[in-house]
Every structure is written in C-alpha cells, then in structure tokens.
Amino acid sequence: MAFLDHVLQPPAYGWKDEEGNLVKPGVGEIFREFFARLNIFETRKNWLPFFSWLKVLCLIPFFFLFVFKYFSFSLFAAAFLYSMIIMGTHGTIWHHRYCTHGAYKFRNKFWRFFTQNLTINVIPEEIYVISHHVHHAKSDQPGDPYNAEAGFFYCFLADVNHQPIAKNLTEQDYNRVKLLMSHTGIKANTYEQYQKWGSYVNPWRATMAWVLNWSFWYLTFYLIGGHGLACTLFGAAGFWAVGVRTFNYEGHAKGEDKQREGTDFSQRDKSINQLWPGFVAGEWHNNHHLFPKSARSGFKAHQIDMAFYYIKFMSVIGAVSSYTDSKKQFLEQYHLPYLESKNVEKKVLIND
C-alpha cells in the first residue's frame, strides 16, 4: 500500500466498505471509538489524543472564571480578539502553512520557536500535520480523516478517532513520518520509543513544552491585566480549541456541493471559500486546496489574509528567508480567464 494509505491508525469501523464506499458510522459508533482511544489504561499508546483533550479540559475552568467572575465588555472584546483572530491566525501560520505545507522557511531556529509559541499551546503538531497530508491526498474520499460527508461528529472528533498515526508502522515508514515532521523542530522519538509510545513526539518533552508555554503566557497576561485578563484569554483559547474542530466540516460544505462559480475554482473536492474563516484566520479554504503550498491563500482584493501578512512582515525583517506566493499563478490560470469568459458571454448576449 502507498504510505498515505496506512500512515494513520484506522478506526474500528474502517475507512471504507468492501465496495470501496465511505463508511458512515453512527453517532454511537463514533463516540465509542472516541472514548476507547482516550483510554490510557488500555494502552499507553493512547497518550497523545488523551493529552490533546486534557489540555482542552484544563482550559474550561478558565472559561467559567471569565464568564462568572471576571466578565466585562472590555474582557469580552479581548476574548473575541484572542480566540477568533489571534488563535485562528496563528493556527494558519504555524500548523497549516508551515508545519504541514512548508510554504515558507525561517531564517533560524529562534524565529521558528518564536512563531511556534506566539499563542497558548493547544494542538499537538503531530496530530495535525501527518493527517493533513492524508486529507489533501484523499480529500472528500474514503480515508480522508475529516471527511465531511460522514457527518459533523466524524469531523469534530477526528483528532482522536482518525488523525493519530498508526501504531504498527515499519521502521522505514516511521522514518517517512520523521521526514514530514523534521522541519517543525519537534524532536522525534527513536523507532524503539515510537514502538513504546505509539507517537512521533515523546510524552515527557510534550508535557514540558506545555507547562513552560502555559506558565509563560499566564504570567505575561497576569502582568498586563491581572488574573482577570489571564483567565479570559486562557478561556478564549479553550473556546477556540473546541470551535476549530468544526472547521473542516464547514470548510467542506458539510459534505454537500456548495461551490460557487467564480469563487471556488478547485473542483477536485468540496472545499469552499468562506468569508468569516478567511477574514479572521486567512483560511480561504478552496484557494488553499488549489495551491496548498502557497504562504498566501487570500488571492482576490477582498480576501484579507492576516496569516500571510505576518509571514510577509517576518520576511521584511529577515526572520523568514523565503516563501511561496501563488497569487499571480491563481490570477493567470483561474481568475482572469474566468473574467474573460464572462465578458465574452456578455458580448454574445448583447450581439444577440
């Protein structure tokens, strides 16, 4: 089998049936798989998805402290800004365009570390990166780890049910995982450690990075605005951590055909461009599927792309050594020919 066909741990209900059609499990099946994969007492190889959701659970008390103890309209505005724009844009900058697609390169390790830790640490890079390569190879097909056609919970719980790497990779295949992750700066387990823990990242290093990141940001927010601001922004990070798990379901039109002529040019899948994710996080998703390795996905004049603005700024100050920008290619291959075709149709109608 091809590497991307088996690099992810298949769910108990499988990716496809004997006829090759997508398996669409019931909600009960999805939740049984979810809780089985969080069971670290069954096997320690479940530690990474458990760790990922543990961080979300740890953020919930901060959210309630904000709502019931520290709430004010100014803190609400701060929470909105941090969850909707800062966390979302950082996810696009770091996890999406750099860790997965290598759309730009840092000048040195310092700037990579700086960008990685710009926000509160929530999503493990390993869970995001490897599965996202599979998503692009099998988008909206059986094997896509967040296939919107299988329903909301299939996507919402995908980080546990479908995105972790397989636990029985050969050493050769594990080395290919390492190649996909090496530029991120996340230190890899040895193959023997992978066989023990079932993951690329070591749990002790991941835990240490989590503790240090959260300690730094809580202290920083406290010094700026006391416990009120710190709890507000940590709660906002928790809100984002839950909300972001809905994105691919929405970004692939809930499994329906909602692409619009002149707006969504990539027709290999059901991805669509949406105004809200585009404005707040630079996630013009159909554009991204058209040019996944581009550091910019906001190609049209109205398509604000704050993730690209950060990358461009880092390039100006010398922190980013190079990046790929596919705007010109998009305009030449797709947008301008579309406009020309519409002008021709208009002239024909006028002449008739």
UniProtKB/TrEMBL annotation:
GO molecular function, one term: oxidoreductase activity, acting on paired donors, with oxidation of a pair of donors resulting in the reduction of molecular oxygen to two molecules of water
Topology relative to the membrane: Multi-pass membrane protein
Transmembrane segments: 47-68, 75-94, 216-242
Fatty acid desaturase domain mapped to chain residues: 77-293
Similarity remark: Belongs to the fatty acid desaturase type 2 family.
InterPro entries: Acyl-CoA_DS, FA_desaturase_dom
Protein name, UniProt field: Stearoyl-CoA desaturase (Delta-9 desaturase)
GO cellular component, one term: membrane
Entry's Gene Ontology BP terms: fatty acid biosynthetic process
Keywords: Fatty acid biosynthesis, Fatty acid metabolism, Iron, Lipid biosynthesis, Lipid metabolism, Membrane, Oxidoreductase, Transmembrane, Transmembrane helix
Location in the cell: Membrane
Organism classification: Bacteria, Pseudomonadati, Bacteroidota, Cytophagia, Cytophagales
